[in-house]
Amino acid sequence: MYLIDFVKRLVQMRNISISIYLLLNTILLMLIFQDPILGLILYVCSLALALSPFGEWILRIQQGCKPLSRKEHIDRLMPLFDEVYKKAKQLDPTIADDVKLFLNNDNSPNAFATGRRTICVNKGLLSYSDDEIKAVLAHEFGHLSNKDTDLILIVAVGNMIVTVMFVIYRIIFNVIGLMSAVVNRSIGTLLMTFFIDVVLVGLMWLWTKFGMVLVMHSSRKNEYAADQFAAKCGYGDELIHVIDSFNGLEVSASKGLWANLASSHPDPDERIGNLQTVDAS
User: What family does this belong to (predicted)?
Assistant: First the structure.
């Protein structure tokens, strides 16, 4: 059921750029391995591991997510989380039944969703009102509902595999080139090896930038969708207050879906205008 719903969302128009990049990455991996079946199997196995509970656990560790431990945090945040969780499940029953709330030590007013069962709040968000925190949580449930976290994870895993294979290929190519230049005492072979290596690095840089452009395009669309989900949960006005506070505020780009893609977020005023349209309708 989840897989079918995920595929449906992947081919939606707002995710078409991610779908294109995913397809191109898959083709590239097949070419690198020179065996389409082997490349596809490795890619699918890597994605399955990344999307598993183990992969999500690794992501939580990487992003500094810790279970709530202090009594004042539990007493304040858990009732807010449970209230929003209930409304989110009513809107989208496909959201996992065991989503957990975590906290990290980042002082930026931020929160993010990771995997399928993790929402993490930065300590910096605790300076906001309870209603504003609920609005942010609803936004993050919107990302879980829209499977945005899995989409980004798929792209990240694909990039990681391509990067690893590229590094291995570079090492082998340079070793062979250097050995050939030494054995043949050929400066020309050495220069050609260096030139081809520079070209390969440039192509890899362009590929990565191309992927980021496509991901950012979909991410901007996904932010609107997550905002609309929060509004449907009943937190549109509160989310407007939160987004408005981001005007002129530099959001940390170190962790999580929201934070890692902060530079790809739509303009705050455009998001607010879109939310006002949702509320008006």
Answer: Belongs to the peptidase M48 family.
134-160 tens-digit pLDDT: 999 999 999 999 888 877 777 777 777
The closest of 112, 107, 113 to 128, measured between CA atoms, is: 107
For residues 175 and 205, which has the higher predicted lDDT (pLDDT)? 175
Q: Quick check: 182 and 45 in contact, CB under 8 A?
A: no
Measured from the Cβ of residue 52, the count of other Cβ atoms closer than 10 Å reads: 13
Burial of 1 (0-12, 13-18, 19+ CB in 10 A): exposed
DSSP character at residue 231: I
The whole-model pTM stands at: 0.76
**Three-class secondary structure of residue 4 per DSSP:** helix
Handedness of CA 130, 131, 135, 138 (dihedral sign): positive
How many CB atoms within 10 Å of residue 273? 13
